[in-house]
TrEMBL record:
<feature type="modified residue" description="N6-(pyridoxal phosphate)lysine">
    <location>
        <position position="206"/>
    </location>
</feature>
<dbReference type="GO" id="GO:0050281">
    <property type="term" value="F:L-serine-glyoxylate transaminase activity"/>
</dbReference>
<keyword id="KW-0032">Aminotransferase</keyword>
<dbReference type="Pfam" id="PF00266">
    <property type="entry name" value="Aminotran_5"/>
</dbReference>
<keyword id="KW-0808">Transferase</keyword>
<dbReference type="GO" id="GO:0008453">
    <property type="term" value="F:alanine-glyoxylate transaminase activity"/>
</dbReference>
<dbReference type="InterPro" id="IPR024169">
    <property type="entry name" value="SP_NH2Trfase/AEP_transaminase"/>
</dbReference>
<feature type="binding site">
    <location>
        <position position="351"/>
    </location>
    <ligand>
        <name>substrate</name>
    </ligand>
</feature>
<dbReference type="GO" id="GO:0019265">
    <property type="term" value="P:glycine biosynthetic process, by transamination of glyoxylate"/>
</dbReference>
<dbReference type="InterPro" id="IPR000192">
    <property type="entry name" value="Aminotrans_V_dom"/>
</dbReference>
<dbReference type="InterPro" id="IPR015424">
    <property type="entry name" value="PyrdxlP-dep_Trfase"/>
</dbReference>
<comment type="similarity">
    <text>Belongs to the class-V pyridoxal-phosphate-dependent aminotransferase family.</text>
</comment>
<dbReference type="InterPro" id="IPR015421">
    <property type="entry name" value="PyrdxlP-dep_Trfase_major"/>
</dbReference>
<dbReference type="InterPro" id="IPR015422">
    <property type="entry name" value="PyrdxlP-dep_Trfase_small"/>
</dbReference>
<protein>
    <submittedName>
        <fullName>Serine-glyoxylate aminotransferase Alanine-glyoxylate aminotransferase Serine-pyruvate aminotransferase</fullName>
        <ecNumber>2.6.1.44</ecNumber>
        <ecNumber>2.6.1.45</ecNumber>
        <ecNumber>2.6.1.51</ecNumber>
    </submittedName>
</protein>
<dbReference type="GO" id="GO:0004760">
    <property type="term" value="F:L-serine-pyruvate transaminase activity"/>
</dbReference>
<keyword id="KW-0663">Pyridoxal phosphate</keyword>
Length: 406
């Protein structure tokens, strides 16, 4: 039975790969009184966040902010750039890539789904050579866009986006490049301009440490150009009017004022720490987590070490173990939420989120909860993963003084 008055002692460990825990600084910022979204103060807030978010996407071009979840920004990316019946090439990295493809079908686009076969295919990243071969075969340029997921949140695989751009260019193909980094942004390095991405989709509730509710489209000049002739119906999602009004820090409709306070605070926090420090912190915690999984004698969902995700780690269960039962034990005994296996890997793995507002001791508590939960669930554990992770973290400490931007 749902009991909204359920508040056990201590804090809940929200270790799913999004929504991630919201730091107190951000919660306090969100609690400021709502202001007039047409008044003078609002314009200053709007300009600050619209400019600051470009630093996170590493772009000089406009970033559109929607009062919507990431799924809305997916729709915006497709509906602004494509026309009914257009063919797009998508790559099956996991559950989120599959959902984006379903959306394309719903919108009347024709997605072609490339991928490695079977459940095993979900253990690898985007194969740029397969994209290049397909584009070379498309001499008539029927394919209008290539759509890939940067950090596949259902598996813990972070694909090489620069390699996808190189593949498109090597094939001499004019297709746009659309990328979902909803769970990668502000946790894994991302370079919208340098990697030649046309539309980057992201959201608030993952690396940016905000509650769910706002999402983004970073758009290249080519994407804007494509939007002038794209014929999919759109109104709320249309870039042109929003970008025009954003010039002065305002929106054509009521934006999520309080979440924008939160975004302003999140940008301060990330830039105070320094983007490179944020990325290094995620890499280090992810490595400690993987050492724990290996010590337990369990397999990591991502089978290719060159594309391990710094955001989350997928932990595969031995045959005959239901990962959702293990997750339920951990939730009931230790008040911790872990990510479920989705789609093809439902019940076969669980996901440990180590993104956003996460430090050494957050991770250690998380791993301790996992280790106890595995034992309670009767999963044979070879050795202590918490000890393996502690040894790695202790041998690779970074003084707090060096964790702040110079
Ligand atoms: C979370 C997520 C989504 C969906 O975003 P919502 O905010 O739930 O709509 C899409 N793609 C990826 C990779 C995600 O991690």
């Amino acid at each position: 039975m749902l009991n909204l008055n359920f508040h056990p002692a201590g804090r809940h460990f929200l270790q799913i790969p999004g929504p991630s825990p919201v730091p107190d600084r951000i919660l306090r910022a969100i609690s400021y009184p709502t202001i007039d979204h047409r008044g003078p103060e609002f314009g200053a807030l709007g300009l600050k966040v619209l400019d600051g978010i470009k630093t996170i996407f590493k772009t000089e071009h406009p970033v559109v902010i929607y009062p919507a979840s990431g799924t809305g920004a997916w729709e915006a990316a497709l509906s602004n750039t494509l026309s009914p019946g257009d063919t797009v090439l998508m790559f099956e990295t996991g559950h989120f890539a599959t959902l984006w493809k379903k959306m394309a079908e719903n919108l009347g686009i024709r997605p072609e789904f490339l991928g490695l076969p079977g459940v095993e295919g979900w253990r690898h990243g985007v194969q740029a050579d397969m994209i290049e071969a397909r584009l070379r075969a498309d001499a008539a340029h029927a394919i209008k866009a290539v759509c890939v997921v940067h950090n596949e949140t259902s598996t813990g695989v972070t694909s090489d986006i620069a390699a996808v751009r190189r593949a498109i260019d090597a094939a001499g193909h004019p297709a746009l490049l659309l990328v979902d980094t909803i769970s990668g942004l502000a946790s894994a390095d991302y370079c919208h301009d340098e990697w030649g991405v046309d539309v980057t989709v992201s959201g608030s509730q993952k690396g940016l440490m905000l509650p769910p509710g706002i999402s983004f489209n970073a758009v290249s000049p080519r994407a804007i150009e494509a939007s002038r002739s794209a014929r999919l119906p759109r109104s709320f999602w249309g870039w042109n009017e929003i970008i025009e009004m954003n010039r002065t820090g305002y929106w054509p409709y009521t934006p999520s004022t309080n979440l924008l306070y939160g975004l302003s605070e999140a940008l301060d926090m990330i830039l105070e720490e320094g983007l490179d420090n944020v990325f290094a912190r995620h890499q280090r915690l992810a490595e400690a987590c993987r050492r724990a999984v290996r010590a337990w004698g369990l397999e990591i969902q991502c089978a290719d070490p060159s594309v391990y995700s710094p955001v989350l780690t997928g932990v595969m269960m031995p045959d005959g173990v239901d990962a959702d039962v293990v997750r339920r034990h951990i939730y009931e005994r230790f008040n911790m939420s872990l990510g479920a296996g989705l789609g093809k890997v439902k019940g076969r793995m669980f996901r440990i989120g180590h993104l956003g507002d996460c430090n050494d001791l957050t991770l250690m508590a998380t791993l301790a909860g996992c280790e106890m939960g595995l034992k309670i669930s009767g999963v044979p554990v070879a050795a202590s993963g918490t000890v393996a992770a502690m040894e790695y973290l202790a041998a690779h400490t970074v003084p707090l003084s060096l964790q702040a931007a110079a």
